[in-house]
Amino acid sequence: MAAAWQGAPARIRDLAQAVMSIAPATEQAAAYILLGRLHTEAPRVPMVTGWVSREKGLAFLRDGHRLAPENQALTYFLGNAVLTLDRKAAGEGRAALAECAGRPPRPDFLAEDLHYARMARERLAGARGRSSRTARRHRSR
Known about the structure:
Blueprint (H helix, E strand, L loop, with lengths): L1 H4 L2 H15 L3 H16 L12 H14 L4 H14 L4 H13 L7 H31 L1
């Protein structure tokens, strides 16, 4: 909360938007990751981060994925955000996570890609566990 009160989210937003407007593909669409995560994960605090929009966050992540589909981090964050925020598009979220989990790591990003592939597998396992528990609950009613 201290960072929010000091204006860090707004500064991050403004800098990422500047990078996006100058060179959107910079660092494999990194500005899209920043803006996507900022909008999907930052708390909405009136008069501080009231501009946060989950819909905009998902749009940034989707646009970034179209621009840099090989970016494992971006693919993971897209899948995770969709599963968390847009239940109607859960298939899209699971597909992104499966893509991330199954893609071979890029040599230049070996550690990062392996990390996000592992996180995607864990998230998928958790999502499957929740959906099967939910189905069992509904059947028992």
